[in-house]
UniProtKB/TrEMBL annotation:
Gene Ontology, cellular component aspect: endoplasmic reticulum membrane; neuron projection; postsynaptic density
Record keywords: Endoplasmic reticulum, Membrane, Transmembrane, Transmembrane helix
Gene transcribed to yield this protein: RTN1
Single GO BP term: endoplasmic reticulum tubular network formation
Residue span(s) of domain Reticulon: 21-208
Protein's UniProt name: Reticulon
Membrane topology: Multi-pass membrane protein
Location within or outside the cell: Endoplasmic reticulum membrane
Coiled-coil blocks: none
Length: 208
């Protein structure tokens, strides 16, 4: 019974996080989204200048400096005003953050599902179960070699973060035009794939 209640609570928390993430991506609270977006950009820019160890250490020192300073400030304030408010972070210290065995099993099962599907898909592509799909994958990898020559991993991650915080808003504002261009691109890709299938004997049969 307790496990069911914990699972329901965790599902509610996940639903709440999902709703908050959507609000952030669509800039429904400009102040909050600006803080999150700016923090991500600052972190990625820091990683381009310093090592991961240095960035993590400085972030930890900054967080500790803020919490220790606030703790000392509240203690001095309570001593001067002779109040007994208790620990300033008491609410967060008492917050339950442990995962139950059922929740761990649920997340493990999800991870196992995605890993198994990924391995099966990679096996299907590399062992050419479907010739056309393997050719598409080869073209994608070939394009990635050019992308890798132009950008490093952090630059791509930085571009991805910028895209995540800008693409949804742009799509909502210009949905009709974007859908039109995406339809043209999809039609062109399908035409190219059809030509490849026509030129390679047996490709269409394997694809079916």
């Amino acid at each position: 019974m307790q496990a069911t209640a914990d699972s329901t609570k965790m599902d509610c928390v996940w639903s709440n996080w999902k709703s908050q993430a959507i609000d952030l991506l669509y800039w429904r609270d400009i102040k909050q989204t600006s803080i999150v977006f700016g923090s991500f950009l600052l972190l990625l820019f820091s990683l381009t200048q310093f090592s991961v160890v240095s960035v993590v250490a400085y972030l930890a020192l900054a967080a500790l400096s803020a919490t220790i300073s606030f703790r000392i400030y509240k203690s001095v304030l309570q001593a001067v005003q002779k109040t007994d408010e208790g620990h300033p972070f008491k609410t967060y210290l008492e917050l339950e953050i442990t995962l139950s065995q059922e929740q761990m099993q649920k997340y493990t099962d999800c991870l196992q599902f995605y890993v198994n599907n990924t391995l099966k898909e990679l096996r299907r592509l590399f062992l050419v179960q479907d010739l056309v799909d393997s050719l598409k994958f080869a073209v994608l990898m070939w394009l990635l070699t050019y992308v890798g020559a132009l950008f490093n991993g952090l630059t791509l991650l930085l571009m991805a973060v910028v895209s995540v915080f800008t693409v949804p808003v742009v799509y909502v504002k210009h949905q009709a035009q974007v859908d039109q261009y995406l339809g043209l691109v999809r039609t062109h890709i399908n035409a190219v794939v059809a030509k490849i299938q026509a030129k390679i004997p047996g490709a269409k049969r394997h694809a079916e």
